[in-house]
Amino acid sequence: MARRDTREEMRRRAGGLESFLPYVLAVLLVPPALFWVAGWIVAKLSGRSYGAGPSELWQAIKAPGRAGEALGAGSTVGFWVVFVVLLAGVVFVVIAMGRTMRGQRERARLEIQKERGLPERRQVEAAYGASSVMRRRKEIRPDFVPEGRRPRVTDYAFWDGYCQGRKIYTTFETPTMLLAPSRVGKTQNVIAPRAIEAPGAMLSTSTKTEIVKLTWDHREKLGGPMLICDPEGVGAEAGLPGSARWSLWAGCEDVTEALSRAKVLAAGGSGGVQNADFWENVTKRVFTPLLHAAAVDPSVTMTDFQKWCFDPKFAEDALNILSDTSGAEDLAAMLESVVKMDDLETRANMWAPAANIGTALVDPRIRDTFGPDGEQMNIDDFLRRSGTIYIIAQENGNASGLVLTLVDAVWRRAVVLANSAPGGRIEPPLHLSLDEIGNIGTLPGLPRMMSEGGGLGVQTTAGFQSLAQAELRYGAAGSRALWEASTQRFVLGGVVDDSVLSALSRIAGTRTIVQESINSSRRGEGQGRSYSEREENVLEKSQIETMRRGLACVVEATKPLIVAELVPAFKRYAKEKRDSDRGRRDPGVPEPAVARVGDEALEGEK
């Protein structure tokens, strides 16, 4: 919506004679004033009385060679020495003020959250403030009843920062698509604060250990299980504990579960290729029977499964298991159609994604993480006890498809629990913090998480470096669907996608600028003023692209676009961290082993 300048605002910015009048007066008045002050100083230094008036001042200006005598100050040489010193001082002050004003203008240019035409304080509070959250608290968490206290806004929403001096919030039912390139403060300003403030279970994905170090102590206070899934040992050098175990085929006795698990594994090998849907369906014909066969036979080891993946001829063992399993006839036929295919080249192409998984399982850490041995992660226990899972994976790493099956399994189990809850939502809400999800791999369930999760008590924050990265994983239509399904879009500075910048600039709206023109008559009969109007964008694309660190463009469905001042995690919880460190130095206070490891890793990075 356009914003129109008032006539007074226009005149302050239009230029015209009023703009030059102060400078004209300064040129006319400053030199005489310096003459008078210089004379006064010389007179005082020489012990003379000083009473120069306008006439004496005029004589001094007319005859500068006798200025001292004309003013009654004594020595003309002394007068000019003092005058030059005073003039130099004035010039220095003017230059310093000019530099200060230029710096202020430059800072004002960067502080785009103060641009005229953006929502004012009252509008920000109505759309993003605490009052807007509390009005809808029964919708956000219908089954939540605080024990022994009044409800707080943070029971229902994340605190994101400030806008126009008001705190702004994102509710636990609002899916967020976060666009931010590397090194602009995404983890400190958005990902970590939300992970800390999530009241229920939290699953985090990342390619770095930073999120663990920033949030472990805070998440641990909820009392739920604390788990790290790090199959490639990314956090080993940082001193993080070993990876938790979760069997790749856990629950795949259910064919529906096996199909869902196979879909994620298949998506990892089809992203960014032609006919991706076709190859994904072909790959599911391989993975679904293999996963079901491994699940129904307790004697199957990860070594067996790895052999099946390596070569179709080894998968005949899986075919035999399915043939002996009641109700698995269809899966046996599905696997047999591939294993016993006459066209060996086509069979090799169909089996290639499975071979990639087999190759990944050569790494003993990956094999141990996703094998059936040892103490296994319990997804239901994690969800019900407000647990925390940190999934750390290398960019396009060998374990990418495997870790994404865990993300998908947690999401689908949360859907089941939500649908069985009285209010139709999981309580407390589940937070899926999918940072760097575009770097890790293709998660086929992500569009559904974004579009349906909010109504089920699952808040998803999906972090991409750009919309182009999402397009690489999900295709042009898929990335557009993600963008449109996201109730909230969070964009930090440095994003260069023209489509994103254009959309945000358009949503921010326009404002009407009134320009004043002064026309002088050639005959000297006077001046005339005329006014014209033009429309300009409240936020230009270049302003959004070059936003300073700590600012973000935030736009939510049915709400106006705002520019938020984010508050990084290290500032939010500085006092709490100091108190924690003080407690650890007390010999009587035991120190959690994992927290200590994380802190040592932090010290090593400094």
Automatic annotation (TrEMBL):
GO terms for cellular component: plasma membrane. Residues 518-537, 575-606 are annotated as: Disordered. The chain crosses the membrane at residues 20-43, 77-97. Residues 522-537, 576-588, 597-606 have a biased composition (Basic and acidic residues). Residues 429-548 form the TraD/TraG TraM recognition site domain. It is found in: Cell membrane. Keywords: Cell membrane, Membrane, Transmembrane, Transmembrane helix. It is a multi-pass membrane protein. Its main location: membrane. It holds the Pfam family TraG-D_C. PANTHER family: CONJUGATIVE TRANSFER: DNA TRANSPORT. This is TraD/TraG TraM recognition site domain-containing protein. It comes from Brachybacterium alimentarium. The lineage of its organism: Bacteria, Bacillati, Actinomycetota, Actinomycetes, Micrococcales.
